[in-house]
Amino acid sequence: MASGVEERVRGMAGEGEEEEEEDDRPQLSAAAAEALREFLAEQRRDGAGGEGEGGGGGGVELVAEDWRLSQFWYDERTARALADEVACLVSGLDSSSAAVACIACPTLYAYLKTSSPDVAAQLLEYDERFGQYGGDFTFYDYNQPEELPAAMKHAYRIVVADPPYLSKECLEKVAKTVSFLAHPEGSFLLLLTGEVQRDRAFELLNVRPCGFKPQHSNKLGNEFRLFTNYDPADRLGGWEKSDA
Ligand SMILES: C[S@@+](CC[C@H](N)C(=O)[O-])C[C@H]1O[C@@H](n2cnc3c(N)ncnc32)[C@H](O)[C@@H]1O
């Protein structure tokens, strides 16, 4: 788990920062270490596990990011674009079956419920602070990809996933969860992850990159992409042409 955090936190070093020497143990760059110190100080100010405006804005309250859980929230533009896309997909479906599963993407869930409160959305998350969403929260650990309530099996026409780590193992397990949740009549799948997962994501989930580039409130060094199993055409920049 630490390696995933390291992978992302490392990417937060400012441009021109020199990478530290590779080591078996997780290591932070000077810039990331400084950012981590600020984060811990902020957490102490908020009180342990305290809530705060962890990014986003626009009236949507998020809990503070916890980097130990690989939490990096979308910026407002990204969260709004994703919420609009999901609402657009929902509007084209029979309302009785248009349920949305948000796997490890609490910011999307929060924006979606603010902009489209009537959309049936379920947040699958490891961080129990999101229990604040009541029945819309389901505890989820990607290491037990199918340990979910039976009622959720094949119940979602729209599935959005943002796996916590950029590893093969994590994507394979999340892919199992996606299969578990996906509707027998087919589901729209949106996967947010690093560009480095492009080939694996295609093999496991048949998704292709879109032109739209997701961004985070705290800039990450890793290039992030949105992959979908359908061509959004004139939305989200459509499928990347060279890959079509
Ligand atoms: C990269 S973040 C994605 C968040 C997204 N960018 C957003 O703004 O909503 C990964 C998410 O995975 C969650 N997570 C951490 N460990 C997990 C685990 N073992 N199983 C499932 N989810 C986990 C974190 O709480 C975090 O919300």
Descriptive overview:
This protein has helices at residues 2-10, 30-46, 76-91, 106-115, 168-181, 198-205; strands spanning 100-103, 121-125, 137-139, 158-161, 188-194, 208-209, 224-228. Residues 1-28 and 44-56 have low confidence and may be disordered. It contains six helices and seven strands. With 244 residues, the chain is α/β, with parallel strands linked by helices. Strands 3-2-1-4-5-7-6 form a seven-stranded mixed sheet, sandwiched between helices. It has two domains: 2-54 and 62-69, no CATH class; 76-243, Vaccinia Virus protein VP39 (Rossmann fold), CATH 3.40.50. Bound molecules: S-adenosylmethionine (SAM). S-adenosylmethionine is lined by residues 69-74, 104-108, 125-127, 140-143, 162, 164. One of its GO terms (biological process) is methylation.
What keywords describe this structure?
244 residues; alpha/beta; Rossmann fold; 2 domains; 7-stranded mixed β-sheet; 7 strands; 30% helix; globular; disordered N terminus; binds S-adenosylmethionine
